[in-house]
Write a structure and sequence with these properties.
By secondary structure, the chain is mostly helical. Helices cover 80% and strands 0% of the residues.
């Protein structure tokens, strides 16, 4: 095994990027695949697609803390490598599936294996000094952003060859990364840091309760959840917003999402580290929240498509919030609980992914239906901006509210 820190970090970044690519690869082909296995029309396919997406997010919510706690007990390496193996096999099952129920089972398993994002983040925390974790977490966000851009693009091209082709490619990528990890990934959880596995800490509610008992973490967790709901407005309603506000077709919507993904990835890779080094995690998160609140409000109000596309790269400046909050939570936890911490954050993110589509699409529907007194396709973005203002208030008043909550 080649035990070099830069190779280990490269594997972690490759894992996160390939996770995002693997998810994005199948987006373009899912409607056709669901229609193929069910024989139903596009309306029914959309319903099944929603159920598949929800089951994926629910599994991430349930298993994020479990895999995090398992990595604290048995180590990061076996959890990451086992998950990659299962993920590769799962993609093969999806490539061969000919019933919707087998497809549903495969998406459930995929949601479990995708919860390794928490273990990957915990690994980065293990090999990084506390003062550098925010910047390293930004690199993880950059990897996800790159995957967010490349996945749908590659998937769209492969779908033109065969509806099953994206799954075979995703399986091949997972197997290749498994071999890479087996060669370069050393274990970071030493015997002194191993933590007994307890179900009370591994279930989402128990892990959240244990995490909230750490000094100064309750409001960080609350901000992380609210941030997740607010920022999931983009995948939840962007396509509908673009069509209703500007009359965009699918090609233009894809281009705009590509601009967002590239901007996000560049911001995570190039801006997060300098922002945190200059201002520290707390102030970097604070300034990023103001950027998010302002850009979300602007997107909700503007009526020019050019203005929206010009605003999109500015959103990258708000990308410091997530890694800064992750770093604050990581600092608050002991060295033997980094897996649990990142598992809790992964569960909160999954919870946001479950709640945000319901909240944002419901808001969009209310303000765009024919009988609505105000036609406002941007209403979900205004709601997201208001949520960010709540985040700012919690973050700024954190120490005072924290003392009050501990009474």
């Amino acid at each position: 095994m080649f035990q070099k820190p830069h190779l280990s970090l490269a594997f972690i970044l490759a894992t996160v990027t390939l996770d995002a690519i693997g998810i994005g690869l199948i987006f373009p082909v899912m409607p056709d695949l669901i229609r193929e296995v069910t024989g139903n029309d596009i309306a029914d396919a959309a319903l099944w697609g929603g159920l598949l997406a929800t089951s994926f997010a629910v599994m991430q919510f349930l298993f994020g803390p479990i895999l995090g706690a398992l990595s604290d007990r048995f180590g990061r390496r076996p959890v990451l490598l086992a998950s990659l193996l299962i993920m590769a096999i799962d993609y093969i099952v999806m490539a061969l599936a000919h019933t919707i129920w087998l497809l549903m089972a495969a998406r459930i398993v995929a949601g479990i294996t995708a919860a390794t994002h928490a273990t990957a983040t915990a690994y980065v925390a293990d090999i990084t000094p506390p003062e550098q974790r925010g910047a390293r977490f930004g690199l993880i966000g950059a990897g996800f952003g790159i995957g967010f851009v490349l996945g749908p693009m590659i998937g769209g091209l492969l779908a033109g060859v065969d509806t099953r082709a994206p799954f075979w490619v995703a399986a091949g990528l997972a197997f290749a990364n498994l071999i890479f990890g087996a060669l370069v990934l050393p274990e970071t959880v030493t015997p002194a840091l191993r933590r007994p596995f307890r179900l009370s800490r591994a279930n989402p509610l128990g892990a959240l309760r244990a995490m909230a008992d750490l000094p100064g973490t309750r409001l960080t967790l609350a901000c992380f959840l609210i941030l997740g709901i607010a920022m999931n407005v983009y995948p939840s309603v962007w396509a509908y917003y673009g069509q209703a506000r500007f009359g965009w077709d699918s090609g233009m919507i894809g281009l705009s999402l590509g601009i967002y993904g590239i901007s996000y990835a560049l911001g995570q890779a190039l801006l997060v580290g300098p922002m945190i080094r200059r201002w520290g995690e707390h102030r970097a998160a604070h300034y990023g929240m103001w950027v998010d609140a302002a850009t979300l409000a602007a997107i909700g109000l503007v009526t020019s498509p050019v203005a929206v596309l010009m605003l999109t790269p500015i959103t990258a400046l708000g990308g410091a919030v997530t890694p800064a909050l992750q770093a604050l939570a990581s600092r608050a936890a002991p060295a033997d609980a980094q897996g649990q911490v990142q598992g809790v954050l992964a569960s909160l993110n999954a919870l946001a992914m479950i709640a945000a589509p319901l909240i944002m699409t419901g808001t969009f529907q209310h303000f765009t239906r024919p009988e609505s007194p105000v036609f406002a396709p941007g209403a979900p973005f205004l709601l997201a901006s208001a949520l960010m203002l709540i985040c700012i208030a919690l973050h700024v008043l954190g120490p005072r509210l924290g003392r009050y909550l501990r009474r």
